[in-house]
Design a protein that fits this description.
By secondary structure, this protein is mainly alpha-helical. It has helices spanning 3-8, 24-31, 41-52, 60-63, 69-75, 111-132, 145-167, 169-256; strands at 77-80, 83-86. The protein is 66% helix and 3% strand. Strand 1 (77-80) and strand 2 (83-86) form a beta hairpin.
C-alpha cells in the first residue's frame, strides 16, 4: 500500500496530490495550448517539458478538466477521498444487507419494537449467565455449544436495534430542530420581557426626574420673584432718597439767593 492510499484512509486526509497543478499559470497555458499536440499523455508531457522547462507526469488537459456533472448524475455517485458517495442517501434494509429482520415491515410505529428487542437482549443475557453458572458439560462436549446460539441472537438483535435507530434519525433531527427553535423562541421572549421591564424602569425614572425638575423650577421661580420684589423696594427707596437730596440742594440754592 503506497503512502497516498494510507493518507486517503486517514481521519483528516490531505488534499489530493493533483492540487498543485490547479494554478492560474496552468489554466492560462491550457487556453493558449497549440492544437497540433497529439491527444496522448506522453506528447503533452514532452511538449510541457520543452516549453516550461519543468518536469510533469500528468496531462493537464485531462487533470484540469471540470467534472462532468452529467456523468455523475448518470452514475448516481461521486468519488471523494477514495470513497464512493451516492447522490441520493438511502438506508439499505436488513434484507439487502443479508441480515435477518426480527420485526415486521408494516409497523406504523417502531419505537415499541426497540423496547421489545431490548428486553430480548436482557433476557438472553440472563439465559447466558444461567448457562455459565450451570454444571459444566462433559469433557468431550463443546463448552460453548449451549451459549453460542444465544450470543449470535444477541448480536442479531443488536443489529436490528441499530437499524431501527438509524431509521429514526430523521425524526430525531426534526425533534432536535424543534427543540432548538423552541429554545431560541424562549430566549427571545425572555429578552423582550427584559427590554419591556427596562423600558418601564426608564419611563418611571424619567417621570420622577420630570417631577423633581418641575418642583425645582417652581422653587427657583418663587425665589426669583422674592428677590425681584426685594430689589424693587430697594430701588424705590434709593430713588426717593435721591429725589429728597435733590430737593434739599435746590432749597439751599434758593436760600443763598
Amino acid at each position: 500500500m503506497d503512502s497516498e492510499t494510507i493518507e486517503v484512509g486517514s481521519t483528516f486526509p490531505a488534499p489530493p496530490s493533483q492540487y498543485k497543478y490547479f494554478s492560474q499559470d496552468n489554466l492560462d497555458l491550457l487556453e493558449g495550448l497549440p492544437t497540433d499536440i497529439p491527444a496522448t499523455k506522453e506528447a503533452f508531457v514532452e511538449w510541457y517539458n520543452k516549453t516550461k522547462g519543468e518536469d510533469i507526469d500528468v496531462d493537464l488537459r485531462t487533470t484540469l478538466v471540470k467534472p462532468r456533472v452529467d456523468w455523475i448524475l448518470e452514475d448516481g455517485y461521486y468519488s471523494a477521498y477514495g470513497e464512493l458517495w451516492p447522490l441520493k442517501e438511502s438506508l439499505p434494509s436488513l434484507k439487502e444487507s443479508g441480515v435477518e429482520q426480527l420485526y415486521p415491515d408494516d409497523l406504523p410505529d417502531k419505537k415499541p419494537v426497540l423496547h421489545s428487542l431490548l428486553r430480548t437482549i436482557l433476557m438472553t443475557h440472563f439465559d447466558i449467565t444461567r448457562e455459565l453458572t450451570a454444571a459444566p458439560p462433559p469433557l468431550n462436549a463443546d463448552p460453548l455449544s449451549r451459549v453460542r446460539d444465544k450470543i449470535e441472537h444477541i448480536r442479531l438483535t443488536g443489529i436490528n436495534m441499530h437499524h431501527i435507530i438509524n431509521e429514526l434519525r430523521p425524526m430525531q433531527a426534526k425533534e432536535t430542530l424543534n427543540y432548538l427553535q423552541q429554545q431560541q423562541q424562549d430566549k427571545r421572549k425572555t429578552k423582550i420581557e427584559e427590554i419591556k421591564a427596562k423600558h418601564e424602569e426608564i419611563r418611571q425614572n424619567i417621570a420622577t426626574l420630570q417631577q423633581a425638575s418641575a418642583q425645582t423650577i417652581e422653587r427657583v421661580t418663587k425665589k426669583e420673584n422674592s428677590l425681584n420684589a426685594e430689589q424693587t423696594d430697594t430701588t424705590i427707596e434709593t430713588t426717593n432718597k435721591s429725589n429728597a437730596s435733590n430737593i434739599n440742594q435746590l432749597l439751599e440754592l434758593i436760600n443763598d439767593l
